[in-house]
Amino acid sequence: MKAILIPEFVPDPSTLRPSDVPTPTPKADEILVRVTHCSPQHADVLHAQGKHQNNNAKRGWCFPPFILGYDFAGVVQSVPGAGGEVRKGERVFGAAIGAFAEYICVKESAVKRVPDELSNETACAMSGQAVSYAAVVNVAKVKSGETVMVSGASGGLGSVCCMVAKALGAKVIALAGDAEKAESMRKNMDVDLVIVMEADWIKQVMDFTNGQGVDAVLDNTGMVNDAIRCLAYFGRIVILGFAARKGVMEDVKMNKLLLKSATVVGYRFGESGRRYPEELQRIWDGYLGMLKTGQLTPLFYGKYKGLEDVGRALGDLADRKVYGKIVVTVADIQETARL
Ligand SMILES: NC(=O)c1ccc[n+]([C@@H]2O[C@H](COP(=O)([O-])OP(=O)(O)OC[C@H]3O[C@@H](n4cnc5c(N)ncnc54)[C@H](OP(=O)(O)O)[C@@H]3O)[C@@H](O)[C@H]2O)c1
Q1: What value, to the nearest 5°, has the Cα angle with vertex 310 and ends 309 and 312?
Q2: What is the rounded CA–CA span in Å between residue 233 and residue 42?
Q3: Best mutation site among 55, 189, 301, 320 for ligand 1, i.e. most ligand atoms within 8 A of its Cβ?
Q4: Segment 289-324, tens digit of pLDDT
Q5: 3-state secondary structure of 78
Q6: Is the dihedral of CA 55, 7, 110, 121 positive or negative?
Q7: Where are the beta strands (DSSP E) in 16-139?
Q8: DSSP 8-state secondary structure symbol assigned to residue 102
Q9: Which of 72, 104, 177, 320 is most exposed, with the fewest beta carbons within 10 Å of its own?
Protein backbone atom coordinates (compact mmCIF):
# COMPACT_ATOMS: atom_id res chain seq x y z
CA MET A 1 0.00 0.00 0.00
CA LYS A 2 0.97 3.67 -0.18
CA ALA A 3 1.75 5.51 3.05
CA ILE A 4 3.66 8.52 4.38
CA LEU A 5 6.56 6.72 5.98
CA ILE A 6 8.98 8.52 8.29
CA PRO A 7 12.26 6.56 7.94
CA GLU A 8 13.92 9.43 9.84
CA PHE A 9 12.69 12.77 11.19
CA VAL A 10 12.52 15.50 8.54
CA PRO A 11 13.11 19.25 9.06
CA ASP A 12 10.55 20.21 6.39
CA PRO A 13 7.43 17.94 6.36
CA SER A 14 6.17 19.58 3.15
CA THR A 15 8.76 17.44 1.31
CA LEU A 16 7.09 14.18 2.41
CA ARG A 17 5.67 11.95 -0.34
CA PRO A 18 3.95 8.54 -0.21
CA SER A 19 6.05 5.42 -0.60
CA ASP A 20 5.24 1.70 -0.98
CA VAL A 21 5.10 -0.19 2.31
CA PRO A 22 3.63 -3.60 3.23
CA THR A 23 -0.12 -3.53 3.88
CA PRO A 24 -0.45 -4.16 7.63
CA THR A 25 -1.83 -7.43 8.96
CA PRO A 26 -4.16 -7.00 11.94
CA LYS A 27 -3.15 -8.55 15.26
CA ALA A 28 -5.60 -10.82 17.09
CA ASP A 29 -7.33 -7.85 18.75
CA GLU A 30 -7.24 -5.41 15.83
CA ILE A 31 -9.53 -4.35 13.02
CA LEU A 32 -8.27 -3.49 9.53
CA VAL A 33 -9.60 -0.22 8.12
CA ARG A 34 -9.41 1.07 4.54
CA VAL A 35 -8.67 4.76 5.06
CA THR A 36 -10.97 7.04 3.05
CA HIS A 37 -9.90 10.34 4.65
CA CYS A 38 -7.15 11.64 6.90
CA SER A 39 -6.78 15.02 8.57
CA PRO A 40 -3.27 16.46 9.02
CA GLN A 41 -2.86 18.68 12.08
CA HIS A 42 -0.26 20.63 14.07
CA ALA A 43 0.83 17.51 16.00
CA ASP A 44 1.65 15.68 12.72
CA VAL A 45 4.09 18.45 11.75
CA LEU A 46 5.81 18.01 15.13
CA HIS A 47 5.80 14.19 14.85
CA ALA A 48 7.42 14.38 11.40
CA GLN A 49 10.11 16.71 12.73
CA GLY A 50 10.70 14.69 15.91
CA LYS A 51 9.63 17.68 18.02
CA HIS A 52 6.51 16.20 19.63
CA GLN A 53 6.65 15.04 23.25
CA ASN A 54 5.92 11.53 21.91
CA ASN A 55 9.32 11.67 20.16
CA ASN A 56 11.17 12.49 23.39
CA ALA A 57 14.14 10.10 23.59
CA LYS A 58 13.47 9.30 27.29
CA ARG A 59 9.69 9.52 27.72
CA GLY A 60 8.42 9.08 24.16
CA TRP A 61 7.23 6.09 22.15
CA CYS A 62 7.10 7.35 18.58
CA PHE A 63 10.40 6.80 16.78
CA PRO A 64 11.34 6.17 13.11
CA PRO A 65 10.51 4.20 11.16
CA PHE A 66 6.78 4.90 11.56
CA ILE A 67 3.83 5.89 9.41
CA LEU A 68 2.76 9.46 10.07
CA GLY A 69 -0.80 10.67 10.75
CA TYR A 70 -3.41 10.57 13.45
CA ASP A 71 -7.04 11.46 12.58
CA PHE A 72 -8.75 9.29 9.96
CA ALA A 73 -12.05 7.89 8.73
CA GLY A 74 -12.56 4.74 6.70
CA VAL A 75 -14.38 1.48 6.15
CA VAL A 76 -13.78 -1.66 8.23
CA GLN A 77 -12.28 -4.47 6.13
CA SER A 78 -11.94 -7.15 8.81
CA VAL A 79 -12.67 -7.66 12.51
CA PRO A 80 -11.08 -10.11 14.92
CA GLY A 81 -12.60 -13.58 15.46
CA ALA A 82 -16.16 -13.35 16.74
CA GLY A 83 -16.02 -9.56 16.28
CA GLY A 84 -17.00 -6.82 18.71
CA GLU A 85 -19.24 -3.80 18.35
CA VAL A 86 -17.91 -2.78 14.97
CA ARG A 87 -18.68 -4.94 11.91
CA LYS A 88 -17.03 -5.46 8.55
CA GLY A 89 -18.19 -2.85 6.02
CA GLU A 90 -19.10 -0.23 8.62
CA ARG A 91 -17.85 3.32 8.38
CA VAL A 92 -15.63 4.36 11.29
CA PHE A 93 -13.49 7.30 12.37
CA GLY A 94 -10.79 7.60 14.95
CA ALA A 95 -7.24 8.50 15.84
CA ALA A 96 -4.10 6.39 15.82
CA ILE A 97 -0.54 6.86 14.64
CA GLY A 98 -0.25 5.56 11.07
CA ALA A 99 -3.30 7.28 9.57
CA PHE A 100 -1.58 8.71 6.46
CA ALA A 101 -1.91 5.38 4.67
CA GLU A 102 -4.33 3.39 2.53
CA TYR A 103 -4.88 0.91 5.37
CA ILE A 104 -4.48 1.02 9.14
CA CYS A 105 -4.80 -1.63 11.88
CA VAL A 106 -6.21 -0.43 15.19
CA LYS A 107 -7.90 -1.76 18.29
CA GLU A 108 -11.66 -1.34 18.11
CA SER A 109 -11.46 1.09 21.05
CA ALA A 110 -9.56 3.53 18.78
CA VAL A 111 -12.57 4.03 16.49
CA LYS A 112 -16.22 5.05 16.60
CA ARG A 113 -18.97 4.37 14.08
CA VAL A 114 -19.65 7.30 11.76
CA PRO A 115 -23.26 8.33 12.50
CA ASP A 116 -25.57 7.94 9.46
CA GLU A 117 -26.12 11.71 9.42
CA LEU A 118 -22.42 12.40 8.79
CA SER A 119 -20.08 11.79 5.87
CA ASN A 120 -16.66 10.23 6.42
CA GLU A 121 -15.15 13.58 5.44
CA THR A 122 -17.04 15.39 8.22
CA ALA A 123 -16.32 12.67 10.80
CA CYS A 124 -12.64 12.83 9.91
CA ALA A 125 -12.55 16.63 10.16
CA MET A 126 -14.23 16.57 13.57
CA SER A 127 -12.65 13.43 15.03
CA GLY A 128 -10.03 15.28 17.07
CA GLN A 129 -12.19 18.03 18.52
CA ALA A 130 -14.36 16.39 21.17
CA VAL A 131 -11.72 18.01 23.39
CA SER A 132 -13.01 21.44 22.34
CA TYR A 133 -16.60 20.48 23.17
CA ALA A 134 -15.56 19.17 26.61
CA ALA A 135 -13.39 22.21 27.32
CA VAL A 136 -16.20 24.66 26.57
CA VAL A 137 -19.14 22.70 28.04
CA ASN A 138 -17.65 20.72 30.95
CA VAL A 139 -14.54 22.64 31.98
CA ALA A 140 -15.23 26.33 31.21
CA LYS A 141 -18.97 25.69 31.76
CA VAL A 142 -19.87 28.44 29.30
CA LYS A 143 -23.40 29.81 29.62
CA SER A 144 -25.66 31.67 27.22
CA GLY A 145 -24.94 35.41 27.22
CA GLU A 146 -21.34 35.09 28.39
CA THR A 147 -18.40 36.38 26.37
CA VAL A 148 -15.77 33.83 25.42
CA MET A 149 -12.34 34.49 23.92
CA VAL A 150 -10.54 31.79 21.93
CA SER A 151 -6.82 31.87 21.11
CA GLY A 152 -5.61 29.92 18.07
CA ALA A 153 -9.22 30.31 16.95
CA SER A 154 -8.35 29.43 13.36
CA GLY A 155 -6.98 26.04 14.42
CA GLY A 156 -8.63 22.65 14.66
CA LEU A 157 -9.36 22.95 18.38
CA GLY A 158 -9.92 26.69 18.39
CA SER A 159 -12.44 26.76 15.54
CA VAL A 160 -14.58 24.11 17.25
CA CYS A 161 -14.29 25.94 20.62
CA CYS A 162 -15.80 28.94 18.80
CA MET A 163 -18.61 26.84 17.28
CA VAL A 164 -19.53 25.16 20.57
CA ALA A 165 -19.52 28.45 22.48
CA LYS A 166 -21.77 30.02 19.81
CA ALA A 167 -24.09 27.00 19.94
CA LEU A 168 -24.42 27.58 23.71
CA GLY A 169 -25.45 31.18 23.08
CA ALA A 170 -22.21 32.90 24.04
CA LYS A 171 -20.59 35.88 22.30
CA VAL A 172 -17.29 34.78 20.81
CA ILE A 173 -14.08 36.74 20.26
CA ALA A 174 -11.70 34.83 17.97
CA LEU A 175 -7.98 35.72 18.05
CA ALA A 176 -6.03 35.50 14.78
CA GLY A 177 -2.33 35.55 13.98
CA ASP A 178 -2.43 37.91 10.99
CA ALA A 179 -4.74 40.24 9.07
CA GLU A 180 -5.13 38.01 5.99
CA LYS A 181 -6.20 35.02 8.04
CA ALA A 182 -8.47 37.23 10.15
CA GLU A 183 -10.23 38.38 6.96
CA SER A 184 -10.90 34.77 5.92
CA MET A 185 -12.12 33.99 9.44
CA ARG A 186 -14.54 36.94 9.35
CA LYS A 187 -16.00 35.57 6.09
CA ASN A 188 -16.12 31.92 7.07
CA MET A 189 -16.58 31.66 10.83
CA ASP A 190 -19.68 32.45 12.86
CA VAL A 191 -18.08 34.58 15.57
CA ASP A 192 -18.88 38.03 16.95
CA LEU A 193 -15.43 39.58 16.61
CA VAL A 194 -12.13 38.55 15.04
CA ILE A 195 -9.11 40.35 16.48
CA VAL A 196 -5.62 40.26 15.01
CA MET A 197 -3.09 39.95 17.82
CA GLU A 198 -1.34 43.23 17.08
CA ALA A 199 -0.25 46.07 19.39
CA ASP A 200 -3.65 47.20 20.72
CA TRP A 201 -5.51 43.91 20.63
CA ILE A 202 -6.21 43.74 24.39
CA LYS A 203 -7.79 47.21 24.23
CA GLN A 204 -10.09 45.90 21.47
CA VAL A 205 -11.18 43.04 23.76
CA MET A 206 -11.86 45.45 26.63
CA ASP A 207 -13.75 47.88 24.35
CA PHE A 208 -15.94 45.04 23.02
CA THR A 209 -16.82 43.99 26.58
CA ASN A 210 -17.44 47.61 27.77
CA GLY A 211 -14.37 47.37 29.99
CA GLN A 212 -15.65 44.28 31.82
CA GLY A 213 -13.40 41.67 30.19
CA VAL A 214 -14.35 38.21 28.98
CA ASP A 215 -15.98 35.53 31.12
CA ALA A 216 -13.95 32.63 29.77
CA VAL A 217 -10.81 32.07 27.70
CA LEU A 218 -10.06 28.89 25.78
CA ASP A 219 -6.29 29.05 25.34
CA ASN A 220 -4.85 26.91 22.56
CA THR A 221 -1.62 28.81 22.07
CA GLY A 222 -0.18 29.44 25.56
CA MET A 223 -1.04 33.04 26.50
CA VAL A 224 -2.21 32.91 30.10
CA ASN A 225 -0.73 36.31 31.07
CA ASP A 226 -2.57 38.02 28.22
CA ALA A 227 -5.70 36.02 29.01
CA ILE A 228 -5.63 37.31 32.62
CA ARG A 229 -5.40 40.89 31.29
CA CYS A 230 -8.55 40.27 29.21
CA LEU A 231 -10.47 38.48 31.96
CA ALA A 232 -13.58 39.63 33.82
CA TYR A 233 -13.73 39.34 37.61
CA PHE A 234 -14.33 35.64 38.49
CA GLY A 235 -13.37 34.72 34.90
CA ARG A 236 -12.11 31.28 33.87
CA ILE A 237 -9.16 30.32 31.70
CA VAL A 238 -8.90 26.80 30.26
CA ILE A 239 -5.41 25.85 29.08
CA LEU A 240 -5.67 23.50 26.10
CA GLY A 241 -2.37 23.84 24.27
CA PHE A 242 0.83 25.78 23.70
CA ALA A 243 0.92 26.06 19.90
CA ALA A 244 2.68 29.45 19.99
CA ARG A 245 5.21 28.84 22.77
CA LYS A 246 7.91 26.95 20.86
CA GLY A 247 8.46 24.82 23.96
CA VAL A 248 9.13 27.78 26.31
CA MET A 249 6.49 27.96 29.04
CA GLU A 250 5.16 31.15 30.67
CA ASP A 251 5.75 32.43 34.19
CA VAL A 252 2.49 33.64 35.72
CA LYS A 253 2.31 36.01 38.73
CA MET A 254 -0.12 34.45 41.20
CA ASN A 255 -1.25 37.82 42.59
CA LYS A 256 -2.79 38.57 39.18
CA LEU A 257 -5.10 35.59 39.68
CA LEU A 258 -6.08 36.73 43.15
CA LEU A 259 -6.82 40.28 42.02
CA LYS A 260 -9.42 39.00 39.53
CA SER A 261 -10.55 35.94 41.51
CA ALA A 262 -9.55 34.07 38.37
CA THR A 263 -9.72 30.33 37.79
CA VAL A 264 -7.00 28.83 35.60
CA VAL A 265 -7.44 25.16 34.79
CA GLY A 266 -5.58 22.79 32.49
CA TYR A 267 -7.47 20.14 30.56
CA ARG A 268 -5.85 17.02 29.09
CA PHE A 269 -8.53 15.25 27.11
CA GLY A 270 -6.84 11.91 26.42
CA GLU A 271 -5.76 11.28 30.00
CA SER A 272 -9.10 12.48 31.39
CA GLY A 273 -10.85 10.01 29.11
CA ARG A 274 -8.62 7.12 30.21
CA ARG A 275 -9.32 7.89 33.88
CA TYR A 276 -13.03 8.64 33.53
CA PRO A 277 -14.44 6.55 30.64
CA GLU A 278 -18.09 7.14 31.56
CA GLU A 279 -17.56 10.88 31.46
CA LEU A 280 -15.78 10.44 28.13
CA GLN A 281 -18.84 8.64 26.74
CA ARG A 282 -21.08 11.52 27.88
CA ILE A 283 -18.73 13.97 26.15
CA TRP A 284 -18.86 12.01 22.89
CA ASP A 285 -22.66 11.72 23.11
CA GLY A 286 -22.96 15.48 23.57
CA TYR A 287 -20.43 16.30 20.84
CA LEU A 288 -21.87 13.90 18.28
CA GLY A 289 -25.36 15.14 19.20
CA MET A 290 -24.34 18.69 18.20
CA LEU A 291 -22.77 17.36 14.99
CA LYS A 292 -25.80 15.25 14.04
CA THR A 293 -28.19 18.16 14.48
CA GLY A 294 -25.92 20.46 12.46
CA GLN A 295 -25.14 22.79 15.40
CA LEU A 296 -21.51 22.08 14.58
CA THR A 297 -20.33 21.89 10.98
CA PRO A 298 -16.71 21.51 9.96
CA LEU A 299 -14.81 24.42 8.51
CA PHE A 300 -12.86 22.83 5.65
CA TYR A 301 -9.68 24.47 4.46
CA GLY A 302 -8.55 23.97 0.84
CA LYS A 303 -8.79 20.87 -1.35
CA TYR A 304 -6.40 18.00 -0.82
CA LYS A 305 -6.76 14.73 -2.74
CA GLY A 306 -4.59 11.67 -2.41
CA LEU A 307 -1.70 10.90 -0.08
CA GLU A 308 0.51 12.91 -2.52
CA ASP A 309 -1.18 16.03 -1.05
CA VAL A 310 -0.26 15.28 2.58
CA GLY A 311 3.13 17.03 2.22
CA ARG A 312 1.43 20.16 0.86
CA ALA A 313 -1.07 20.02 3.74
CA LEU A 314 1.71 19.75 6.33
CA GLY A 315 3.52 22.67 4.67
CA ASP A 316 0.37 24.81 4.80
CA LEU A 317 -0.06 23.96 8.49
CA ALA A 318 3.59 24.77 9.26
CA ASP A 319 3.24 28.09 7.37
CA ARG A 320 0.14 28.92 9.48
CA LYS A 321 -2.00 29.42 6.37
CA VAL A 322 -4.77 27.11 7.53
CA TYR A 323 -8.05 28.05 9.20
CA GLY A 324 -10.40 25.23 10.19
CA LYS A 325 -9.46 21.68 9.22
CA ILE A 326 -7.66 20.12 6.30
CA VAL A 327 -9.13 16.80 5.16
CA VAL A 328 -7.28 14.73 2.56
CA THR A 329 -9.42 12.35 0.50
CA VAL A 330 -7.49 9.08 0.36
CA ALA A 331 -10.16 6.88 -1.28
CA ASP A 332 -13.67 7.69 -2.48
CA ILE A 333 -15.57 4.64 -1.31
CA GLN A 334 -17.52 5.61 1.80
CA GLU A 335 -21.01 6.06 0.36
CA THR A 336 -21.16 2.53 -1.10
CA ALA A 337 -20.13 1.23 2.31
CA ARG A 338 -23.12 2.75 4.11
CA LEU A 339 -25.07 -0.07 5.80
N1 LIG B 1 -5.46 19.61 25.81
C2 LIG B 1 -5.62 18.59 25.00
O3 LIG B 1 -6.13 17.53 25.38
C4 LIG B 1 -5.17 18.74 23.56
C5 LIG B 1 -5.64 17.84 22.58
C6 LIG B 1 -5.22 18.03 21.26
C7 LIG B 1 -4.34 19.08 20.96
N8 LIG B 1 -3.89 19.90 21.94
C9 LIG B 1 -2.98 21.03 21.67
O10 LIG B 1 -3.79 22.16 21.39
C11 LIG B 1 -3.07 23.06 20.53
C12 LIG B 1 -3.92 23.40 19.32
O13 LIG B 1 -4.09 22.22 18.55
P14 LIG B 1 -4.75 22.29 17.09
O15 LIG B 1 -4.86 20.92 16.59
O16 LIG B 1 -5.94 23.16 17.16
O17 LIG B 1 -3.58 23.02 16.28
P18 LIG B 1 -3.69 23.84 14.92
O19 LIG B 1 -4.88 23.38 14.12
O20 LIG B 1 -2.35 23.83 14.27
O21 LIG B 1 -4.01 25.31 15.42
C22 LIG B 1 -3.13 26.05 16.25
C23 LIG B 1 -3.45 27.51 16.07
O24 LIG B 1 -2.56 28.23 16.93
C25 LIG B 1 -2.17 29.44 16.30
N26 LIG B 1 -0.72 29.65 16.46
C27 LIG B 1 -0.17 30.70 17.07
N28 LIG B 1 1.15 30.62 17.04
C29 LIG B 1 1.46 29.50 16.40
C30 LIG B 1 2.68 28.89 16.05
N31 LIG B 1 3.87 29.41 16.38
N32 LIG B 1 2.64 27.73 15.35
C33 LIG B 1 1.46 27.17 15.01
N34 LIG B 1 0.25 27.71 15.33
C35 LIG B 1 0.27 28.87 16.02
C36 LIG B 1 -2.52 29.33 14.83
O37 LIG B 1 -3.41 30.36 14.54
P38 LIG B 1 -2.83 31.78 14.05
O39 LIG B 1 -1.84 31.48 12.97
O40 LIG B 1 -4.04 32.50 13.55
O41 LIG B 1 -2.22 32.41 15.24
C42 LIG B 1 -3.20 27.99 14.65
O43 LIG B 1 -4.41 28.10 13.96
C44 LIG B 1 -1.75 22.36 20.17
O45 LIG B 1 -0.75 22.86 21.02
C46 LIG B 1 -2.05 20.89 20.48
O47 LIG B 1 -0.88 20.18 20.79
C48 LIG B 1 -4.31 19.75 23.22
Answers
A1: 65
A2: 33
A3: 320
A4: 999 999 999 999 999 999 999 999 999 999 999 999
A5: strand
A6: positive
A7: 19-20, 30-39, 66-67, 71-78, 91-95, 103-107, 111-113
A8: S
A9: 320
Rg for the chain (alpha carbons), in Å? 20
pLDDT (tens digit per residue) in 229-249: 999 999 999 999 998 988 789
Distance 152 CA to ligand 1 centre (A): 6
91: nearest Cα among 70, 110, 119, 69: 119
Cα torsion 34, 269, 160, 326 to 10°: value is: -30
Q: What is the pLDDT of residues 72-94, one digit of tens each?
A: 999 999 999 876 789 999 999 99
318, 309 in Cβ contact below 8 A?
A: no
Helix (H) or strand (E) holding 275, with range, is: helix 269-275
- Nearest of 192, 186, 202 to residue 145 by alpha carbon: 192
Q: Is any ligand 1 atom within 6 A of the Cβ of residue 151? A: no
pLDDT of 167 higher than 50: yes
CA 48 to chain CA centroid, nearest Å: 17
| pLDDT at 338 (0 to 100) | 47
Mean pLDDT of 183-206: 96
pLDDT in the model for residue 339? 40
pLDDT of residue 187: 95
Task: Report all structural domains of the chain as residue ranges with CATH numbers, in order of start.
Answer: 2-128+300-337 (3.90.180.10), 130-270 (3.40.50.720)
Ligand 1, residues 220, 267, 268, 272: which to mutate, most atoms within 8 A of Cβ? 220
Residue 4 · residue 67 · CB < 8 Å:
yes
pLDDT of residue 334: 53
